[in-house]
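seq:
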Amino acid sequence: MTNGPEPDRLDELQARIDALKKASRPEPAVVKNFGAADQGWRMVIELVAGLMVGAGLGYGIDLLLGTLPIFLVVLTLLGFGAGVRVMLRTAKEIQDKNARGAAAADEGEDDGKRG
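struct:
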């Protein structure tokens, strides 16, 4: 008999440890596909946020300078423009994502017809 650990038993123990680690590993997070209503609300919030930031900055500058309607109107319009721009960018992202999904679905159907 040897005084050291047996290599076969160590290998068996290591395999059991690896199996337990793999079994207790959490599942990876699944990316949620947002529905049309969620995407619509996102765009509405982007528009309103642009308006609010513009109006808030304009009102604050007007209070500091004593020129009440000038900066309020100008920065509110700029905020509206920024909100519309962000909304259009979001709409383009959604459209591109849907186009990629449709293209992938078409490829899957083509592969199924060939087989």
